[in-house]
Amino acid sequence: MHIRKYDFDYSRRFFLEKTAKGLGGAGVLGSMWPMVAHSGEWNKAYPEELTSIEAHTKGKVKPGDVITADNVEHVEHLLDPVAAMQVKTMGRRIHIVEPVKDVSQLMPASFLEATLRNSGNAVLDKNGNVYNKDGSPWNGGMPFPNPKNGVEATYNLTLSWGRHDYSQYAVRDWDIDDDGDLSYQYDFVWCELNTTGRSDGKVWRDKKDLLRYQSVFFTAPNDSAGTSFLNVWHYDQRKFPDLHGYIPAFRRVRQFPTNQRFEPLVPGITLYLSDAWAAGDPLQTWGNYKIVGRQPMLGTIGPRNFHGGYNDNWEKPVHGGPKGQTFFDTYMELVPECLVVDAEPTGYSRAPVGKKRTWIDVRNQMYVAYNTFDRRGDIWKSFEPHYALQSNDKTTIMDGDHPAWSWSSVHSYDVQSARMSRFVQAKTVTGGYDSHYNEDRTDVYNKYLTIQAMQRLGAT
Q1: Which residues pair with 214 in a beta bridge?
Q2: Which residues pair with 333 in a beta bridge?
Q3: SS in 3 state form for 79-133?
Q4: Could you give the CA distance from residue 281 to residue 237 in angstroms, rounded to a whole number?
Q5: Fewest CB atoms within 10 Å of the CB: 151, 364, 381, 392?
Q6: What sign does the dihedral 55-56-61-62 (CA atoms) show?
Q7: Alpha-carbon 244 to chain mean position
Q8: Is residue 278 within 8 Å of residue 157, measured between CB atoms?
């Protein structure tokens, strides 16, 4: 009889002890990051029960299987509560695939290089902001690849949302109501330009006091086209962003209050500014950060989630819900270790959210699941991201000298109203806008990231 030393219970006990002692670091059999620096692979830091879904479930689930209501009991502990409910009661299906073992497929190459180059150089100043040890603004990559607490883990999400110095996402969104019908369909463009925290190690145009410019503008349908918002983020995470919006009906730009971050951007959509990257608000406008657990999870990560070549516009097949159109087909893999981080909106006296919970993959410090709770403590929303290296057997999208990495789609589900907004990062959307990660291709600042740009985009 073969007795496994590192079985599921061993890993569970190990994670419980880590959490209780407030220990940082990724890995069970050893520290993960030295292994990544040596070979680029993470899997040797974990026992087989955390690298193989077949071993983890004792043969009940294996790559190639599809999770449905009939077998979800075997992986329910690996899903956030909303995803588990969707499979059990709403007809959602999840495809199981082998995990990606090469860390370079879990983030942009430039971001990984910056993380390794700047490792150990991040410090928190007396005001709780991240700087280099020499006092300069953070110069790229994850500041805390081995976070010791919830604040450090959340800074890894906050300082560079999309992990690119510039990201432009052409987004196609479908909003499904509680009866399963399509109620709205939007095209919009989302732009992010980091001024600091950049993988190239530079400060953009010497704007050391800012973190990023971020805009979103709608291009379809006609009655919403021109609606746009501009967020100007301060580097100091105690300060609220300057939020400006252009509403075509009023034909002017106005400044919005901070609590506008918890409201739909346009009618019918469940996407809020606060939802972005599970870190849509400045870190210190939330508080009581706490790592409440560590666990394996199922995450939508691998290249099967990129549909370039299989669909001309990178769109995805759908299924489930009352009318068979509520969910995208998703391909999940076993993530060996996730941090479970809770926080409360201490800077928003009227926020409808009472708490958020984020599950963060320790290998790339990117979230794989995100739930918000209302003031009563009931689950309100789920914001589920799907990531992919943009390379498959049909096509490859290049980001410099390497295949591009980004999010591919999102399920934004309002549990209490049973409304789903599902959206993809498309190749192009109405207006001829495309997805890309190159700020030098055009003057993106003046074209998309100023108040004047909001007025111009709204008027066209």
Answers
A1: 192, 231
A2: 299
A3: CCHHHHHHHHHHCCCEEECCCCCEHHHCCCHHHHHHHHHCCCCEEECCCCCEEEC
A4: 9
A5: 392
A6: negative
A7: 23
A8: yes
Q: Which residues of 330-353 are buried (b: 16+ CB within 10 A; e: fewer)?
A: bbbbbbbbbbbbbbbbebbeebeb
**What span, in angstroms and rounded, lies between the C-alpha atoms of 2 and 256?**
64
Task: Quick: pLDDT tens for 29-54.
Answer: 778 877 777 677 787 888 889 999 99
Distance CA 227, CA 222 (A): 10
How many CA atoms within 13 Å lie on the side-chain side of 198?
A: 23
Cα separation values, 97 from 51, 223, 299, 403, Å: 12, 41, 10, 20
Report CA-CA distances (Å) from 331 to 21, 316, 395. Answer: 34, 12, 18
The rounded distance, in Å, linking the Cα atoms of 337 and 359 is 10
Which amino acid is present at 324? G
Alpha-carbon distance 283 to 153, whole Å? 11
Q: Cα separations (Å) of 351 from 230, 236, 274, 375, 414?
A: 21, 21, 11, 9, 16
pLDDT tens profile 202-250: 999 999 999 999 999 999 999 999 999 999 999 999 999 999 999 887 7
The residue type of 134 is D
Q: 0.70 cut: is pTM over it?
A: yes
Radius of gyration of the chain (CA): 21
In the block, residue with structure tokens 């391909």: 331
Query: How far apart, in whole angstroms, are the C-alpha atoms of residue 293 and residue 361?
Result: 12
Could you tell me where the beta strands, DSSP code E, fall in 178-227? 182-194, 210-220
Q: How far is Cα 414 from Cα 453, in angstroms, rounded to an integer? A: 32
CA distance 395 to 308: 6
Bridge partners, residue 379, by sequence: 373
CB 177 within 8 A of CB 184: no
State how far the Cα of 201 lies from the Cα of 113, in Å rounded to an integer: 11
- Domains of the chain (ranges plus CATH)? 153-459 (2.50.20.10)
Cα–Cα distance for residue pair 158/278, rounded to 1 Å:
8
Average pLDDT over residues 175-192: 98
The tens digit of pLDDT for each residue in 409-433 reads 999 999 999 999 999 999 999 999 9
Q: What's the CA gap between 76 and 90, in Å, rounded?
A: 15
Q: Which one-letter DSSP state was computed for residue 172?
A: E
Question: Which residue, among 175, 437, 408, 181, has the nearest Cα to 311 in the 3D structure?
Answer: 408
H or E segment and range at residue 359: strand 353-361
* Rounded Cα–Cα distance for residues 434 and 438 (Å): 11
Token pair 């919009």: residue? 188
